Give the backbone structure.
Amino acid sequence: MSVVPGESPSGSWPPPEFDTGIPHSARMYDYWLGGKDNFAVDRSMGDAFLREIPTLRDMAKENRKFVNRATRYLAAEGVHQFLDIGTGIPTSPNLHETAQAVTPDARVVYVDNDPVVLAHARALMVSTDEGMTTFLDADVRDPESILQQPEFRRVIDLGRPVALMVIAVLMLVGEEDEPYEIMKVFRDALPPGSYLALTHPTQDFDPQAVETVTAFATQGGMTFVPRTKDAVAGFFGDWDLVGPGIVPVREWFPKTPPANPWSAYYWSGVARKP
């Protein structure tokens, strides 16, 4: 029996498998974006972050705007397959909506391991007559569990280019979990002509504020690892950066030049596999 928002097999919400005692980044993002799919612990941690960085709501929106711009760019470049790691709670327009508006036969595999995200994704992310979407309950820290799933192989043809979308998720992977090796596994699995689109929070723009919220996250039981520009560059390996390279998220092909590109504390970039 599938679970959709407001329902559970036992008729309660949240279902018993939901851990509402530890904040989760996807639900915090939902809170910052004005959504309702979050719990008291997420709002409490979200408010703690906002006290230190009052513009976080705008930063979350800028991150979503990057997803839309990068997706349109990649679809226009002829990429018809997308692997979105750490999807988060659906926020319209979702990646598949943006991609299929450019190339109707686009195929999208969404991946997340938060039950709230899963409940919404299964209800909202449906295939079209021409395109296809699916959702995997899996963890970025186990890339083989994603790449080897039959459902992944049903939707994604690894003989054709794939856009790997890793949006604001690697900050949840500590060094002990070898994030660079994780990304290497993904990069090695994808064929030439594939792309990696990535955003990552950084301490480079306001070290003191980011250090404070990192401490809040640690105290709350979350893993939160901001990284410098050089550290973020390592996730692209030897792939060729396109466009402006690794830049503040507001500066990656914006519709209009931002007044202050450093006001959103994310590095962003897109690279192509030679």
